[in-house]
Structure formats: C-alpha cells, structure tokens
Design goal:
Keywords: Magnesium. GO terms for molecular function: nucleotide binding; P-type calcium transporter activity. Pfam families: Cation_ATPase. The chain is of the alpha+beta class. It has one domain: Calcium-transporting ATPase, cytoplasmic domain N (3-Layer(aba) Sandwich), CATH 3.40.1110. It contains five helices and seven strands. A three-stranded antiparallel beta sheet has the order 3-4-5. The protein has a two-stranded antiparallel sheet with strand order 1-2. The N and C termini lie close together (11 Å).
C-alpha cells in the first residue's frame, strides 16, 4: 500500500514517475535505514550471473523495491552510517516490528527526529496517526480508514 493505493503484485508496483517525489524519497530513506545494514543485494560480477541476496529475504525484497524505483540504498546508508542512527529497535516477536530513529538536521542544526517502522500490519496500523497521500502531503489517519485498510488489504494478504 503506497499513498492509498494497494499494489497486489510486483508487476503492478509503481514506477518512480508514478510517485510524488517527496514520497519516493521518504520510501527510499525509510527502507534503506530500517533494514539491517548487513542485508544487501549483491550485483553479479560476470555476465549471465544472477544477483545474490545477502541477509533477510524480506528485507532484500524491500531493498529490491528501492532499486526498482531508481533509488540507491547504498547512497542513503552512506548518508546515515549505522553508527549515526540515533536508536534502532530490532525486530522481536513481542514487538512484531522494527523501528529506526534518525536525527533530522536543517543546515546542520538538530531539529528533531524521524521514526521509521516496519512490521506486522496490525501493529503498524495501530500506531499510525497520519499517512502520506498521492499529493505527498500528510493526511489524518482515522479509525474508519484503518478499518477499511484491514478489511481490504490486511485480510487479503
């Protein structure tokens, strides 16, 4: 689900041009810093070799999506080295999610934090207060929208 639209398969995923530029940037950053830094996609060294996924396969799929929308997770990780991340809450079975907190800087001045979360849909949806619409803007995420998402997307997963 991206900007209110459900993409049922890899074949229907949006291209970079179909996403608001700000939304694409947030997705690329979120996935890049909120996947384990030892998870990566290794490009083949010889012709006709396949790419090699190193680490968690779900996270590799997310990193593959970053590449599919013309993003570079390696570039984002250079911008936010692992040791610079403010806090990482690794996935565990009780939390059913992973969160990464980064510092937000404007002109070198610390202006706050951004928290990226991924995990079980019911856990993530329960914490949502806003969503990014197709216009790239934050919109309130209410109980009606949450219930509709659970009924139309989560139960069909």
């Amino acid at each position: 689900l991206i900007t209110g639209k459900y993409y049922a398969s890899q074949d229907t995923q949006p291209t970079r041009k179909q996403l608001h530029e700000g939304t694409a940037g947030l997705l690329i950053e979120a996935i890049s810093v909120n996947c384990a830094y030892n998870t990566m996609i290794v490009e083949p060294k010889k012709p006709n070799e396949q790419i090699y996924q190193l680490g968690n396969k779900t996270e590799c799929a997310l990193l593959g999506f970053v590449q599919a929308i013309d993003g570079s997770y390696a570039e984002i990780r250079r911008k936010y080295p692992e040791e610079s991340l403010f806090k990482v809450y690794t996935f565990n079975s009780s939390r059913k999610s992973m969160m990464t907190v980064i510092r937000l800087l404007e002109n070198g001045i610390d202006v706050g934090f951004r928290v990226y979360q991924k995990g079980a849909a019911e856990i993530v949806l329960a914490r949502c207060k806003y969503f990014i619409g197709s216009d790239g803007q934050a919109h309130p995420f209410n109980e009606q929208t949450r219930a509709e998402l659970i009924a139309t997307v989560v139960t069909n997963m």
